[in-house]
Amino acid sequence: MNVEPTETIAAASGGVFVSDLHLFSPRSDAAYVPAKLAETKSEDRCIVLGGDIFDFRWSVQGSHERTLAAAVHWLEELLERTEQAHIRFIPGNHDCHPEFLHLLTQLAQREPRFDWHEHHFQLGDTLFLHGDILDAHGNLNSYRAKFHHEHPQTGLKHKLYDGVVALRLHKLVPLVRHRPELTCRRLLGLVGTLPAASEIPVQRIFFGHTHAPVLGHESQGIRFYNPGAALKHMLSRPQYFEFDQPIALEKRRT
Questions:
Q1: For labelling, which of 73, 174, 177, 237 has a CA lying 20 to 30 Å from the CA of 108?
Q2: What is the sign of the dihedral through the CA atoms of 150, 138, 177 and 52?
């Protein structure tokens, strides 16, 4: 992973982390989120969008191109509503399409308060990432490429997925597969293989992907936070973070 040249643009005293909204999917239950995020307005706050904010695979926007445009529009509206707050975007497996990442770069060039990070970034002692590294089997690029859909899924597959949701089966899988202690230990081991985002030791990790809430679980001296998923019949709680003193917030030079 290349290290991008950066410049310090502000200092953050805290902020909020959300992930797995799966916007544009008919199973998304995230209509409340923009208003909730709009409460964060000051220049010393940072909103971290931790991946799978948009769902290109299951979008009902009508086409891939319309989904791309709708996603950028949603981010532009969020920037307007949050006034002076800074926004950082980390793509997940459902919103990592190369065309979308190109549009994120263009948005970052237009908007001083916006930037995005390919996989993870760190503020002070706090690391943020999507968490799909848990399912990547050592090759994140290959795993994410499986989600580069040029065409959203068909109506029949939506009906099958709706049946799973109606039976609440989508709630059981995360609880069985992603029990907090095992998941946090696995994630910590995988994070150790990544290029260091900072020289400061990590004390907190905020992640998404698993759809299983983790509300401050401690493992090996690190506290873990996961907001869950804003899908029907599931729990989603934005996770807030604070720093003892303002932390330099950087932006990549473009």
A1: 237
A2: negative
pTM of the model: 0.93
Q: Which CATH class is domain 16-252?
A: alpha beta
Q: Which pairs from 133-142 meet CB under 8 Å and 24+ separation?
A: 133/187, 133/190, 133/191, 133/194, 134/178, 134/183, 134/186, 134/187, 134/190, 134/209, 134/210, 135/93, 135/209
| Angstrom distance (rounded) from CA 230 to CA 54 | 11
Question: What are the Cα distances from residue 144, in Å, to 66, 129, 168?
Answer: 21, 14, 26
Rg (CA), the chain: 17
The per-residue pLDDT for range 56-79, each reduced to its tens digit, is 999 999 899 999 999 999 999 999
By the 8 A CB rule, do 138 and 127 touch?
Answer: no
Q: Which residues contact 154 (CB under 8 A, 6 or more apart)?
A: none
What is the biggest distance separating any 2 CA atoms in the chain, rounded to whole angstroms?
Answer: 52
- Burial class, 213, CB count within 10 angstroms (exposed 0-12 / middle 13-18 / buried 19+): buried
Instruction: Tell me how crowded residue 81 is: count the other CB atoms within 10 A of its CB.
Output: 15
